[in-house]
Amino acid sequence: MKTVEDDTGRRYLLLKRSDTASLVRDPTNGNECYVQNDRLEDVDESPLETAARSVDDPVLTLLTNVHDEETLGLVVELAERGPLGVRTLLDAYDICESDLHGRLTVLSAAGLIEETDVAGERGYRVTEDCERALAVLRSSLEDRAEETPKRVEDGSETGV
Predict the structure, then answer these.
(1) Which structural domains are found in the chain, ordered by start?
(2) Alpha carbon 94 to chain centroid, angstroms
(3) What's the short name of a Pfam family annotated to this entry (predicted)?
(4) What DSSP element (H or E) covers 49?
């Protein structure tokens, strides 16, 4: 599989090439169609990178910069309780100062959190992009929860 681009700049995943036309898939919506070969150009991008671009930018940023549950928890807590001062973060959560500083630096560089003033001291809050990414992830969890049958007291299951 290769990444190709048509004459309008739209990128596709190349599925099959014949003499005159190629079968391509649009990674954003999964639609497949044939495009004339003279309208396509090979692109020096991994097909996996192209596929990843079908994910909304804020979500992609969150997924590629949060590498463990503690860091995700930090982001979630800042979204729920924030903005929070550095002292509050150190006191409330079992994390050493150097680990906290490292996580905050990575999240700030990614544009997921930003520094702010909290009661006259340095603190952090999530950015709008981070809030949007979390909303997408949470909505998928809510959708899943709605699909899961709930147990009633007699042990039988019922739909939501």
Answers:
(1) 2-52 (2.30.30), 58-130 (1.10.10.10)
(2) 26
(3) DUF7346
(4) helix 47-52
Burial of 136 (0-12, 13-18, 19+ CB in 10 A): middle
The residue among 98, 131, 127, 103 whose CA lies nearest residue 115 is: 127
Q: Which two tokens stand for residue 146?
A: 């709605």
pTM: 0.71
Burial class of residue 129 in the structure, from the number of CB atoms within 10 Å of its CB (0-12 exposed, 13-18 middle, 19+ buried): middle
61: left (phi over 0), alpha (psi -120 to 50) or beta: alpha
pLDDT, tens only, 86-129: 999 999 998 899 999 999 999 999 999 999 999 999 999 999 99
Q: Which residue bears the tokens 């898939």?
A: 25
For residue 3, which amino acid is it?
A: T
